Amino acid sequence: MPTFTRTYRVARSADQVFDVIGTHLYENHPRWEREVVAIRPLTDGPVHIGSRAVMVRQEYGRRTEGTYEITAFEPGRLVAARHLDGPMDFAISFALAPADDAATDLTVTVSMALRGRLRPLSPLLGLQLPGRSDRISRSMVALVEMGPPAAVAGWAAATQ
């Protein structure tokens, strides 16, 4: 299964980073990944382990929907998810470690593999994984570092 892992230094505290990419995941994900049109929660309440949502994507001229589930949710430390349907196995995790009082090391790990008859093509998918994952991760870091304006849902709560 092709895997991408990279650590990024984010100029924000771990709590601020987690607020954007964990607590307010559904609102902010479309802001850092241009292919994501919307996230529709299927589970009531705040994001937690077992939460499910539908991700609506628009890419290569096609609109698709897929369900994903939160598999880890540790405020200030870790958020992870896996896709439950669609043509591929896909899992992602965001692990946070304080670098100092004002910075966080964010380790992004993405694993993906095609299912069924398409599985032999997984190595080709793996060729695109590093570039695409890095682009999306850098966009996420930029969103977090952008800070206060209302462009980042929940920021006010994290900075008070």
What does this structure look like?
The chain is α+β, with helices and mostly antiparallel strands. It has a single domain (3-153), classed as START domain (Alpha-D-Glucose-1,6-Bisphosphate, Chain A, domain 4). 30% of the residues lie in helices and 41% in strands. It is built from four helices and seven strands. The protein has a seven-stranded antiparallel β-sheet. Strand 6 (88-100) and strand 7 (103-114) form a beta hairpin. The longest helix is centred in the last third of the chain and has 25 residues, at 122-146. The radius of gyration is 15 Å and the shape is globular.
- Which CATH class is shown? Alpha Beta
Query: Terminal Cα separation, in Å?
Result: 42 Å
Structural class: alpha+beta
What is the number of domains? 1
- The residue ranges in which pLDDT falls below 50 over 5 or more consecutive positions are 155-160
Order of helices and strands: EHHEEEEEEHH
Give the strand line-up of the largest sheet: 1-7-6-5-4-3-2
The total strand number stands at 7
Gross geometry: globular
Roughly what percent helix? 25-40%
> Describe the biggest sheet?
7 strands, antiparallel
What's the pLDDT, averaged over the residues?
87
Instruction: Provide the CATH superfamily.
Output: START domain
Radius of gyration: 15 Å
What name is given to the CATH topology?
Alpha-D-Glucose-1,6-Bisphosphate, Chain A, domain 4
CATH architecture: 2-Layer Sandwich
Oligomeric state of the chains present here: single chain
Strand fraction: 35-45%
Number of helices: 4
